[in-house]
Specification:
Layout: H1 3-24, H2 27-31, H3 41-58, E1 63-65, H4 73-77, H5 79-97, E2 104-108, E3 120-124, H6 125-149, H7 162-169
Parallel strand pairs: 1-2
Antiparallel strand pairs: 2-3
Helix pairs in contact: 1-5, 1-6, 3-5, 3-6
Amino acid sequence: MSDVARLAAVCDELLEQARDLVLKLDGEDFTSTLPGVGSSAGAHLRHCLDAFDCLLDGHDGGRVDYDRRARDRRTETEPIAALERIETLRARLRDELAITSDRSLAVRADEPGLAPQDGWVRSTLARELRALASHTTHHYALVAIVLRLRGVAIPERFGVAPSTWAHARR
């Protein structure tokens, strides 16, 4: 299995975790914020899905622009819309990346001071999939905090990096 296919499978597992979680949440748990926290579980999930869309929209043409996120409000306020988007992304990951080899990409994200003046940096598809998995895991950790503070039981591994999980088990 290529690095891209392996990393796409990791990302698919993360999207599956999101699907499983959304299926367990009611609308209030999905959309509510807490004082001092600011973002809802739905908002964090939408943000992650936006990044997946950006990568999948741009990888074939070699230019991934994370600044062009859709920020679709329905995805963060309607669990059904989030579930539909998750399934679409999972299918795209399988269809577009299962047999794709690594390739060079130009990537842009609004990160003042971290990128050249025009914002574009060189990367690879494998690197972006790895970064996306890490980014998603970290947002899932925030989702876990929001939901636990609301009294929602969530899976023990949700939002925990695989290396952290393995270390904790030793």
